[in-house]
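Sorry to interrupt, but I need a hand with the structure work. It will help me judge whether the discrete encoding reads sensibly. Write everything out right here, beneath this request:
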Amino acid sequence: VTLGDNESLIVAGLMKEKKRKFKSKMPVMGDIPILGYLFRRTEHSSDILELVMVVKPRLVAPIGEDESVALPTE
């Protein structure tokens, strides 16, 4: 990929899917073999997370031999 100064490139596609299952029931009544189905609940949820990166290069002038550059730690 070739980009010019201040042009953007979007890199995406890394996805993560998270599935969850949650069960709840009424005490004692939810444990009855056939009728227990009426007293319990199951929930399913699914989340999808996608990573998107934006790359934006900036062109800078080269540093001359007699010039010094201040580092962020100085």
Observations:
- The chain has a mean pLDDT of 89.
- The first strand starts at residue 9 and ends at 25.
- The two ends are 35 Å apart (CA to CA).
- The beta strands are 9-25, 40-55.
